[in-house]
Known about the structure:
Blueprint: H1 2-22, H2 28-35, H3 41-76, H4 88-101, H5 110-132, H6 139-163, H7 168-176, H8 184-203, H9 205-213, H10 215-220, H11 225-247, H12 253-265, H13 269-302, H14 311-329
Helix pairs in contact: 1-3, 1-13, 3-8, 3-9, 3-11, 3-12, 3-13, 4-5, 4-6, 4-7, 4-11, 5-6, 5-11, 8-11, 12-13
Amino acid sequence: MTRRFTALAALAVVCAGVELVAGRGMSPGVAWDVLNGGGDATERHILFQLRFPRLLVALGAGACLAVAGLVLQSALRNPLAGPEVTGVTPGAVLGAVTATALGLAGWDSPLAVVLAACAGGCAGAALLWLLAGRGSGDAAQTAVHGVLVSAVLGGLTAMVLLVEPGELGSVVQWLVGTTEGRVWQHWHLLWPWALVWGIAAWLLSGPLTLLRCGDDIALAAGLSARRARTLALLCAVALTAGAVAAVGALGFVGLLVPHLAVALFGADLRTSLPGAALVGGVVVCGADAAAQLSSRLLATALDSGRLTLPVGALTACLGAALLLVVVRRRPTRTF
């Protein structure tokens, strides 16, 4: 385990270094010069005020989504239970889109956007619990209700965009997911939230490990399955809301990264939860670096200086392809 954590940490450092120099206006030589105290004011501003907060936000959001996904899959015993099943991701997007359309928030006011997205995410979770929370706590029912809630919230987002079509350009990044334009204020809002709820999720690692084995085994061990599942869903909701508020709806990160974390670190969530956080950060950071490099290549090929590929589009495409490959190779796999 120590070797795997060390290898992932080294990979995270490599991805971070690539992301710092992947975008426009910063070569490896210039970045190294700035880190050593050189460079002009513009280069220092690009590196320290734009690249570093973008890097940290990508790492933090990836960690939040990965931990939330692993918590959900363990609590619901459903291998396809990503953060979207709670209704938080579409709810947070709806909150950000609505606030932007009403003129209450915008990309120039990160705090207002984060608050609107968190409010929307909590509203999506509350709607789910109103529908399924008073039932028997059945995992399958919770997952089904989550899919329905997500569909409803996605429809409401589409309606807002139809009412305010002029806001489409400013909110489309929320629908896809991006780290573009992230500044230190986004990071200062994200890391305390992620730290508190990440620790809370790790403290639930024991009950979650029992829930992975089934409610009967959990009850035999003296665990209240319904109470543990409710606390776990609360952690997943909070982590997802924080990530979506920071970067928008990054597809497939919370769905596929937990499977990779369990494969690397085992089913004991005391180790796989920190592992999932590290893997999630590496995946989003690496995807963001790849998206920036692809944007530069496409802009050069198409002679378009403003072409930008959002990281959410890359994670969605690669995640969907990977999921299709896994399903076709192991069609009978169960949790």
